[in-house]
Design a protein that fits this description.
6-stranded parallel sheet; 277 residues; TIM Barrel; 2 domains
C-alpha cells in the first residue's frame, strides 16, 4: 500500500513519541561513525504484512539506511525466516528499531489472525470482515492488514455506509422506522445495513427493503432461522462474540458475512526480532 503524506506524518509522530533522536542508550555507547548490518527475523509462523511501513520508519529517521525486503506482502512466513535486511549508521538503526518493530508486529499480527479465521470458514460462502474497532488514526493500515490476511473490509468510516444499530433504532422508534428515514434521505445511493436481534425485526426491515442486515448476537438456531426468513433478499452479516471456536458453525448457517472485532481490537502482536550481524 502507498505510503502517503498522512502516514509519513504518523511515522514522524511515532518516532517523536519515542524520543528516537535522543536515544541516550545508543548515543552514549555507539560511536557516531559506526556502521551496522541487521536482519529482521520471524519468530513464529504467520502472514507478513507491513514491510513498506517498516522500511519507511528507518527511511524517515535516516535516509542513509539501506533496506531490502525479502518477502512479499501477504506471504506466509515461518519461524527463523529472514524477511528483511538493512544496513547503515548503527545509531540510527538502533534508535528507530522499536517504532518499526511495533508497527510491523501489529500489522502482521492482524494479518495472521485474520488468516486463521478465513481458514476456519473455508468451503462456506461466508466472508470474514473487520469492524471499526481499530487504533485511532491507523485504521487504514489495520484494514489493509485484514485484506493481506484474506479478510474483507467492512465500512471504512461513518460516511462509507449507513449502519443503523440498536441506539439509532431506539432513538428513531425502531429498526424499520430508522430504515425508512434513512432511505428517504439517501439520495447518494449509499448502501444501508440495519442491525436486528429478533426474527420479527428482520421480517420488518426486509419488508421495507434493505441492502444488508446485521444479525446481532444470535444463536446458531436463530441464525439459521434468519437465513430461511431472508430467502436471499438481503445480504446477512452475523456479529457479536465471534471466536475461532465458533466461526465455522456460524458460517455453516448460510450467512454472507461474519464481522469479527477481534481481528483488530485484541490481536496479539507478531513476534519479530531485529538482529545486528
Amino acid at each position: 500500500m502507498e505510503i502517503d503524506n498522512k502516514t509519513k506524518g504518523l511515522i514522524k509522530q511515532a518516532l517523536e513519541e519515542d524520543h528516537a533522536s535522543s536515544d541516550l542508550s545508543t548515543l552514549w555507547t555507539i560511536p557516531e561513525d559506526a556502521q551496522a548490518e541487521a536482519r529482521l527475523l520471524a519468530r513464529q509462523e504467520g502472514i507478513f504484512c507491513g514491510g513498506p511501513l517498516f522500511a519507511e520508519v528507518f527511511k524517515t529517521f535516516d535516509a542513509a539506511i539501506n533496506f531490502d525486503l525479502l518477502v512479499d506482502e501477504g506471504s506466509a512466513i515461518e519461524p527463523d525466516q529472514q524477511v528483511a535486511r538493512l544496513s547503515g549508521p548503527a545509531r540510527s538503526i538502533l534508535s528507530a528499531e522499536r517504532t518499526a518493530l511495533n508497527l510491523i508486529g501489529r500489522l502482521s499480527g492482524i494479518a495472521t489472525q485474520t488468516a486463521h479465521y478465513v481458514e476456519r470458514v473455508h468451503g462456506t460462502k461466508a466472508r470474514v470482515c473487520d469492524t471499526r474497532k481499530t487504533t485511532p488514526l491507523w485504521r487504514r493500515w489495520e484494514k489493509y492488514a485484514v485484506r493481506m490476511g484474506g479478510g474483507t473490509n467492512h465500512r471504512d468510516n461513518l460516511e462509507d455506509m449507513i449502519l443503523l444499530k440498536d441506539n439509532h433504532a431506539s432513538l428513531a422508534g425502531g429498526p424499520a422506522k430508522a430504515l425508512r428515514s434513512a432511505k428517504e434521505k439517501n439520495t447518494k445511493g449509499v448502501e444501508i445495513e440495519v442491525e436486528v436481534d429478533t426474527a420479527d425485526q428482520l421480517q420488518r426491515v426486509l419488508e421495507e427493503g434493505v441492502d444488508r442486515v446485521l444479525l446481532d448476537n444470535m444463536s446458531i438456531d436463530k441464525l439459521r432461522e434468519a437465513v430461511a426468513i431472508n430467502a436471499g433478499r438481503a445480504k446477512l452479516e452475523a456479529s457479536g462474540g465471534v471466536t475461532l471456536d465458533t466461526v465455522r458453525e456460524i458460517a455453516e448457517t448460510g450467512v454472507d458475512y461474519i464481522s469479527v472485532g477481534a481481528l483488530t481490537h485484541s490481536v496479539k502482536s507478531f513476534d519479530f526480532s531485529l538482529e545486528v550481524v
